[in-house]
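thought: user wants a sequence for this fold. calling inverse folding tool.
action: design(structure=
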């Protein structure tokens, strides 16, 4: 029964990797297309500020996808989730949201909430980096500190 569950889990992870690669390819093509269209429609090859913010949003979205793909690949190889990468993806996602938001349309509470979220994620990332890389081992269901004897994390 355990072999069947492991096979299903691996199948799902491979399916997620394939789908994420397809989405990233399409998003990159869309980003390139959107960039070319904005440059051709602009005066003196200068992109309008609103369109530039949209381009940055799409760029950050592709970057989020790349980080998620890396997280899935590491999970497939080692069956661990790197907490640092997950927090980094969250920071990039919030940064993307801040870039594409129209600040004049937001309430004060929402702006304060986004600020608290950014500060919280930044503190979490700082503490993770300061203490050493933490990984969540999915086999043991606990979090451990990365030591020098562990395998390197960059893959």
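)
observation: tool returned 155 residues.
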């Amino acid at each position: 029964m355990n072999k069947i569950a492991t096979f299903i889990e691996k199948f799902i992870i491979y399916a997620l990797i394939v789908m994420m690669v397809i989405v990233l390819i399409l998003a990159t093509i869309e980003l390139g297309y959107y960039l070319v269209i904005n440059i051709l429609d602009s005066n003196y090859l200068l992109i309008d500020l609103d369109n530039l913010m949209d381009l940055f949003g799409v760029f950050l979205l592709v970057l989020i996808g790349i980080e998620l793909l890396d997280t899935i690949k590491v999970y497939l190889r080692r069956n661990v989730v790197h907490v640092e990468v997950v927090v980094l993806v969250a920071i990039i996602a919030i940064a993307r949201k801040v870039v594409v938001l129209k600040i004049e349309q937001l309430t004060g509470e929402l702006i304060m909430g986004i600020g608290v979220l950014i500060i919280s994620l930044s503190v979490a990332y700082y503490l993770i980096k300061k203490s050493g890389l933490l990984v969540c081992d999915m086999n043991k269901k606990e979090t451990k500190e990365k030591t020098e004897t562990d395998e390197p994390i960059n893959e």
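thought: summarizing for user.
answer: Here is the designed sequence. The first strand starts at residue 80 and ends at 82.
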